[in-house]
Structures are given as structure tokens and as C-alpha cells.
Amino acid sequence: MSGAGGLNRYRVRTFGLELVMIAVAAVIGFPIYVLVNLAVRAPSDASSPIRPTTSPTLDNFTEAWQQGALGGALINSALVTAGSVIIVLAVSSLAAYPLARVTARWSRWTFLVIMLGLVLPFQLAALPLYQTMRDLGLLGTVWSLILFYSGLQVPFTVFLYVAFLRTLPRDFEDAALIDGCTPLQGFRFVVFPMLKPVTVTALVLNAVAVWNDFFTPLLYLSGSTQQTMPVAIAGFVGQFVTDWNLIFAALVISIVPIAVVYFALQRSIINGFAGGLRG
Hints:
CATH architecture of the largest domain: Orthogonal Bundle
Structural class: mainly alpha
Shape: globular
CATH superfamily of the largest domain: MetI-like
Distance between the termini: 43 Å
Largest sheet: none
Strand content: under 5%
Number of helices: 14
CATH topology of the largest domain: MetI-like fold
Mean pLDDT: 85
Order of helices and strands: HHHHHHHHHHHHHH
């Protein structure tokens, strides 16, 4: 009887958890449904956004691509995201290695100074940074954004790397040093390959943050022909007329590249978070 009772309790608990998961999935999926539903809806259809469209069309995507010059914006976003993420990963991993391995006082204080970048809002430095970019002649170019994001995202990425490195045993790198490797060679050939989970996690998190940012491209690329996807999409919003079908179609186009990257690397992202939490 006790075994049967335990089985029943397990089934009830599992059923309750399944209901909660279904409810969470519905809450998350509803905005996606509205987004796609409006993206494929004809402009003449003025029914509720919740009501499924009866005559879906892909013309909104073609028109949004042409009117918003999304091709150039997509290339700019890809260049800024790729350039920024590569620099951030390289700098952060190299900085995190000694911070995680060295136990001296300077290491702890340096780590705390870097972590200040997580709590200090970048808006405090918006004006000085803008003036610096202007003096360097980088305003209106994607290089200003790459330089900005390369500094902005380093503290968070260093935090991820340090947390993960502290969970890794030192046996392999110590063996490499005994065999004659320099610390840099040991990091490159032994340690960095073991950082794949957290590297992928940092890659995706930074890529999403850079890809979706609106304020910085609007500030640094203002007055130029260059624009990123969020700025290009904002251009569809007019003072008197706003074509929401084109806006939602452009949003779908903007979401697809970063969503593909996320789902392709999903397993490594989960492993990266798990490794950091164990630390």
C-alpha cells in the first residue's frame, strides 16, 4: 500500500509540474504567436492581433526588407556583433585566467575593480565617450560601436570566466608547465579548450546584448547612412502613420539570425551555466 501511495503522490506531483510548465510555455509563446501572426497579416486585415489571420502573406517581409534597407543594417549588425564578441572573449579569457589562478592580494583587488563595471551604469560616461569617439573620428562608423561594446561587456564576461575557471582542476596545466610550456602556451593549448562551455555561453549572451542594443547605435551612427537592425526597425515608426505589419515582419527578420545561433549552441550554454553555478 505504501508503495502504491508513493507512486500516486509521484504522479500527482508530476502532473502538477507539467501543468506549470505548460502554463509557462503558453505565457512565453503568446507574444511570439502575436509577433508572427501580425508579420504575415495583410495590411487590409484590421482584426484583433490575437485572431489568426485568414490569408497569410509573405509580402510584408519583402516590403520591409526593401523599405527599411534591412540588408545593409543586417550586415552592420553582424559586423558589430562579431567584432565585439571576438574582442571581448579574447580579452576577458586572458584577463580571467590569472585572476582565477593567482591568490595574491593584487589579484583579488583587480577582480573587484573589474566587477565595478557591473554596477556602474554606462550612461554616466555616455557624454565623455561620445566626445572621445568624435575626437577619434569614429562617429558614424561601426568601429565606434565595436570599440564601445568591447569595453562595456568585459566585466560581465570576466565574471563568467573566473567563476568557471575556479571549478577546473589545475592538474593538466601544471603538467603542461612541467613539460616546458609557458603560462600563455598552457592557457592556449590546455586551459582554453576546456573553457568551451563558458565561452559559448559568453558568446551568446554578449551577442544578444550587442545585437539588440538600440541606444548606442542611435547615438553613435546618428547623421550617417550606417544603421543597425534596431535603428532600422525604429525607422518604420512615423509621426502620423505606422505600418505595424512591416514592423513585425522586420522584427522577425531581426530575430531569426540570433535565434539560430542560440538554438545551435543551446547545449553548450546550459553546460556553461551549470559549470559556473558549481563554482
